[in-house]
Amino acid sequence: MTKGNFLKPINEKKIMTELSKRIERLFLKLDRAALAVEQHLSDLLFALYADNLAESDAIILADEEIDRCEVEIERECIRLLALYQPAASDLRKICFAVKVNSDLERIADNCVSSAKMMKILVGDNISVNQFPLFRNLADLVVEAVHQTSRLISVNCDEQFAIEIIKNDRLIVDKAYRDFLQSIFAQTDRFNNQINAVYALTSIGRALERVGDLCSNIAEDTVFMLTGEIVRHSI
Amino acid sequence: MINFKQKLNTKIVQQTAICAENFSLWYGNKLAVNRVSMEIDSVGVTAIIGPSGCGKSSFLRSINRMNDLIPNARVEGRLVVEGQNVYEKRIDLVLLRRRIGMVFQRPNPFPKSIFDNIAYGPRLHGIWERTKLHEIVESSLRSAALWDEVKDSLTRSAVALSGGQQQRLCIARTLATQPDILLMDEPCSALDPIATGKIEELIVALKENYTIIIVTHNMQQAARISDKTAFFCLGELIELAETNKIFTTPANPQTEAYITGRFG
Q: What are the backbone dihedrals phi and psi of residue B161, each rounded to the nearest 5 degrees, phi first?
């Protein structure tokens, strides 16, 4: 071995600080939370289509685990902010995690409130299956949540995020309006079952909120990647 | 009578206090500052950050020609302070260093009384009248937020003050000669967090009236107190921008890597 050759050249790009490692672990937790929320939504829709009250109770119970994950992620974000005083992309990543964590928990909360509303529908012998436009809205929201989950875990890309934002504003919001109109056009079907109308519109509203929250996550992704706040500009 | 408020009112408001144009500095054959071009605003704090040996202190010391004292140091390019190249031959160095004060890493009070430390500069510039000196000492100590702590012991040795007080005394001593620009070379690196906090508060208070350039290794300090931040690396200016931008969305990947601790 010649003198001076015993040290291998260091590739700066491969150097990971302790903070980078912890942010990577934080994003893994966020990724798992996104998958859990996606599962939560598909369980809700399964319960709604099958009028399965046992499943809706399971959704309400499963929310506790999502709440626990949310608190854990938030604590880790606070720890990282306090201990490492991050800057630049590290700071943006942690801010992203704080906001997305909260949005994911709110998506899960919307699923829980829909699961509770479902009990009213079943009590009044009304099913979402009677409203074809509900399935249209639900399919769009499921797709939005799936794409958002991909955005967080595998395809963290600015263009992809902008597509999700546009999709929510152009398609999901329209599907929600169409669904509402279809309910109000069929009021004679409800025979004074005001609670059922309320439950249906609440579930529709909750799904529309889920779409909005996906859009928020996509906006936060653009901020994390570029530092640009696009909330009011797209 | 030297009245700081009066001085503030008469101070010429300029957008750019210091302008470096392709400025380079060598120590013998070693290039310490490499063709730096930058403009420093007349009001506010500009922080210079960068890894050790990147030329930030050398650049700072070039502004009031402290590097002239180092053998084999030579410069190229222009360093214009309020319209005048400081490396012109006809520059009066004593006057230049009166206008551009400097505070160093370690507090360096003279082994004299607190009063004599502050009065030292004015005396050098020919002010001997006792009442005038008293006024200068009081207003300087007040500006450095030290008056209330030492007003009853001005004859006490300055060396007996705490580290933080000594550093504020040094700032007061600099202010006593009525500079327009304050250069600070890691002024808090030898101080505890409480003393550091007081110096930072003082810098923020002084920035309304002085051009302040601070070299610091403490990223959070730069983020807290500066309006603009310049990042130096290997003698070159890599990026100069609003501090907020540098610490949230730096334009240059090298700046990003440095402030996130990935190299340096």
A: -70, 160
Q: What ipTM was predicted for this assembly?
A: 0.72
Q: Which residue in this structure is represented by tokens 């008293």?
A: B134
Contact call for A15 and B262, based on CB within 8 A: yes
Cα–Cα–Cα angle for A130, A208, A194, rounded to 5 degrees: 50
Asked if A19's CB is within 8 angstroms of B261's CB, the reply is: yes
For helices A18-50 and A53-84, the axis angle rounded to 10 degrees is 170
Homologous superfamily of A14-226: Phosphate transport system protein phou homolog 2; domain 2 (1.20.58.220)
In the chain, the amino acid numbered B68 is D
- Whether the Cβ atoms of residue B110 and residue B118 lie closer than 8 Å to each other: no
Q: How many residues does chain A have?
A: 234
Where exactly are the structural domains of chain A?
A: 14-226
The pLDDT profile of chain A, 234 residues, written as one tens digit per residue, is: 344 444 444 454 555 678 999 999 999 999 999 999 999 999 999 999 999 999 999 999 999 999 999 999 999 999 999 998 899 999 999 999 999 999 999 999 999 999 999 999 999 888 999 899 999 999 999 999 999 999 998 888 999 999 999 988 889 999 999 999 998 888 777 777 888 899 999 999 999 999 999 999 999 999 999 999 888 776
Q: Which residues of A touch B (CB under 8 A)?
A: 12, 15, 17, 19-20, 85-92, 226-227
